[in-house]
Amino acid sequence: MRNKSDSFMRKIPAKHQKWLIQELPILEDEGILTAESRNRLERYYLNKVTTRGHWATIALGVLGALLIGGGIILLFAHNWENLSRSGRAILSFCPLMLAAALSALAIRRGGTSLRESAGIFHSLAVGACIALIGQTYHLPSNTPAFLLTWALLLMPLIFLLPSNGAYLFYIVLICCWSGAAQDQYGQALGFWLLLIPALIYVIQQIRTNYQSGLLALWGLMLMLPIALGMVLERTIPGLWIIAYASFLSLAGLLGMRHFPTAYGWSNPLRTIGLNGVTALAYICTWQEIWYDIGWGYTRVNFTHQESGLWIDPALTAGLATAWAFVAAKTLRRDCLPTLVLCAFPLCVCAGFLLAAYGESAWINALLFNAFVLALGLAHLAQGCKTAQLRQVNYGMAVLSLLLITRFFDSEFGFLTRGLAFIFMGSFFLATNLIIARKKRQLESSPS
């Protein structure tokens, strides 16, 4: 049964729609379509056109906004020391007023290039105004307060324009704030409240125009793993492994559940989730990661707050609960990625408990080496069976990463390593050639 979310991805470029509409009368004349079928197809594809802006136009507009903003700041800096305090204050607001006028024009006209340019310029103007006012009146330096004020002033802008540029500025600012707040205050729980507007914006963009929302979703998925590492107190060593395993698996399962036919760039959730799980599984193959973890090594100081004794477990439990709920809805025995994403957090939890209650670092390392090896072999085998080069290459990449690093980690001679690398390279090349030939045969054979 087709997923309802596929409707977000059924839109086509305008040139494809134009070609299809031109072909329909020909198909009707040839007797392939009836008049009723033709009318139904025309009505169906009438509102299925993507509204994608030209990337070159958008990029030039954004670059122009950056150059204008930088030029205005440099002009101010040239005569800054010769101006009175009131003059400095007035000039500090000039870029912001100009940005507000440009944003109002963008809201009224609604062009993508103009909205993105206005969003970037307005974001820079807000930060410049705050910094210049602080310098003019010698306000006390407070990096978290500066970043937080900047982010809060940008928050309405991302919805009013809307602008992916302003949105990306916002998520970068809240990510930086979480690091600065964690360093200065010892905790950054406010990050999760600041994340809510970003989530709402991404969902709105995905629902209105999937292609336009991809950039916003990619920005979110690249920012969240960084911010998660900053927000965790790490008072309980090793708990971060479970948190990351749950988060990455949850992301991958959401991508597979809501966008089952999308891959690569078109599905950031699946791409970040699967690749992140593979990377984390590889990290877990090293013994050092399993030393001194668990509640027996709890640490409390300024950088590891006592509140982390309940914050980190609560955050980890929340991510694990969300993962379990989505896994129960998404699990399919005939889908290898789904099985991996459903099993990985369970393996990590078992490894954490083994390391926390016993001296089993080498056992965990051995088990995860076996896990990564099985992961690579499974993708390779399934890719060969279905003639999918993407899956074959993924499996070979995982096997190469594991085998090459294990060779360098072991006391093998140069001759042994050289022969092994030649054998692996020859095997991978031969597999690619065989799969490519099989795929061409399948495509050329009559259905």
Q: Would you give an account of this structure?
A:
- The chain is mostly helical and 447 residues long.
- It has a domain at 1-48.
- It is 76% helix and 0% strand.
- It contains 16 helices and no strands.
- The chain has helices at 14-29, 35-46, 55-78, 85-109, 112-136, 143-160, 164-184, 190-208, 210-231, 239-258, 268-283, 308-330, 336-356, 361-386, 389-409, 414-444.
- It is globular.
Structural class: mainly alpha
Order of helices and strands: HHHHHHHHHHHHHHHH
Percent range for β-strand residues: under 5%
- Shape from CA axes? globular
Query: What about the largest sheet?
Result: none
Low-confidence stretches: 1-9
In angstroms, what separates the terminal alpha carbons? 23 Å
User: Which percent bin holds the helix content?
Assistant: over 70%
> Measured on Cα atoms, how large is the radius of gyration?
27 Å
Specify the number of helices: 16
Number of strands: 0
List the helices and strands and how they pair.
Elements: H1 14-29, H2 35-46, H3 55-78, H4 85-109, H5 112-136, H6 143-160, H7 164-184, H8 190-208, H9 210-231, H10 239-258, H11 268-283, H12 308-330, H13 336-356, H14 361-386, H15 389-409, H16 414-444
Helix pairs in contact: 1-2, 3-5, 4-5, 5-6, 5-7, 6-7, 7-8, 7-9, 8-9, 10-11, 10-12, 10-13, 11-13, 12-13, 13-14, 14-15, 15-16
